[in-house]
């Protein structure tokens, strides 16, 4: 009986350990993109609405992992800036995801309607930076 418990414990511990290892391996090779959007005056609220109501779901539909969204605190940037980070399995996966996203009929409809509702374009400037995590980064 003791031997069975020991073997069962080893099996369960090994399974848990393996699951953690698999999760770590899944995250290990991610490729990150940080994007910053500067809106036209007064349009940040519309950009937030578009992300909240549509964009995030469509991103996920195309395999983009939502890491986080931020707005600056203080100064002029807090009135018109959104920064966010997405993760992908690779640079190639990123390119494929964005290509599919841009062609998505639902996104095209949402994009057009948001501009119609806002009386023109919402975003006036987009900046993008590609990032690889360092070996000491807590997020991989």
Topology:
Blueprint: H1 2-28, E1 31-39, H2 44-61, E2 65-70, E3 81-88, H3 91-103, H4 105-118, E4 123-131
Antiparallel strand pairs: 1-3, 1-4, 2-3
Helix pairs in contact: 2-4
Q: What is the tally of beta strands?
A: 4
Taking pLDDT < 50 over at least 5 consecutive residues as the criterion, the unreliable ranges are: 1-26
Radius of gyration: 21 Å
Derived from helix and strand composition plus strand pairing, the structural class reads alpha+beta
Spatial order of strands in the largest sheet: 2-3-1-4
Straight-line N-to-C gap: 42 Å
Shape: globular
- What number of domains? 1
Overall pLDDT, averaged? 85
- Look up the CATH topology: Alpha-Beta Plaits
Q: Helix content range of the residues, please?
A: 40-55%
Please, how many helices?
Answer: 4
The main pleated sheet reads as:
4 strands, antiparallel
CATH class: Alpha Beta
CATH architecture: 2-Layer Sandwich
Give the ordered list of helices and strands: HEHEEHHE
Strand content: 15-25%
In short:
This protein has 140 residues and is an alpha+beta fold. Helix content is 51%, strand content 23%.
Describe the model.
By secondary structure, the protein is α+β, with helices and mostly antiparallel strands. Helix content is 51%, strand content 23%. α2 runs antiparallel to α4. The longest helix is centred in the first third of the chain and has 27 residues. It starts with a helix and ends in a 9-residue tail after the last strand.
């Amino acid at each position: 009986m003791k031997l069975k418990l020991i073997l069962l414990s080893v099996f369960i511990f090994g399974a848990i350990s393996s699951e953690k290892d698999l999760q770590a391996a899944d995250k290990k090779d991610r490729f990150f993109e940080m994007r910053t959007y500067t809106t036209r005056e007064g349009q940040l609220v519309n950009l937030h609405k578009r992300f909240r109501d549509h964009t995030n779901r469509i991103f996920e539909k195309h395999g983009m992992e939502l890491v986080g969204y931020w707005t600056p605190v203080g100064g002029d940037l807090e009135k018109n800036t959104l920064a966010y980070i997405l993760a992908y399995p690779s640079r190639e996966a990123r390119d494929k995801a964005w290509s599919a996203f841009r062609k998505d009929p639902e996104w095209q409809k949402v994009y057009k309607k948001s501009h119609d509702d806002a009386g023109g374009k919402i975003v006036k400037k987009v900046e993008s930076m590609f990032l690889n995590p360092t070996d000491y980064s807590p997020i991989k």
